[in-house]
Amino acid sequence: MWSSRSPCSGFRGLRANWAPPPGLTLQVLGPRTYAVFTAAAARLDSPPGAALIADRRVDVGRIADGWLARTPALAGPLAQALWVLELGVVPLVDKLRPFTALGPVAQDAVLRGLMSSRFALKRQLFGGVRSLAMLAF
Question: Rounded to 5, what percent of the chain is helix, strand, coil?
């Protein structure tokens, strides 16, 4: 289990608004993958939904963590997909900086590149993250 006592410590570029709130105990996701998922979910949702996520009225990271804890067969692959989204670079993911350090337009471009790639692995990575985002909202 992860404790989010200091969710941003040691993670350069991690925006505090995507980090787990203080006191949240994570079961599957770590602070970094929680932040990656929350940022991606905000970009994948509609503008009203993204505003609810950004304002923390809907905590998609907590919901996704609970769902993954109940489905351990998917927890590992989806957590790995979030790490690839965060730290993967060209040619796997079209970016050079961590996903959480990118602005909204650049995050949209990364997600669009995964979604429309001719490579099945990239589309599957996008599909897994998108499916979890839709389940969590």
Answer: 60, 5, 35
- Specify the residue for token string 């979890």: 132
Q: Which residues of 25-53 are buried (b: 16+ CB within 10 A; e: fewer)?
A: ebebbbbbbbbbbbbbbbbbbeeebbebb
pLDDT digits (tens, 9 = 90+) for 34-45: 999 999 999 999
Q: Which residues face 2 on adjacent strands?
A: 26
Nearest to residue 35, comparing CAs of 87, 71, 106, 95?
87
Of 109, 75, 70, 73, residue with least CA distance to 93: 109
Q: Which residues pair with 135 in a beta bridge?
A: none
Q: How far apart are the C-alpha atoms of 112 and 123, rounded to whole Å?
A: 10
For the whole model, what pTM was predicted? 0.87
Residue 83: both structure tokens together:
């790490």
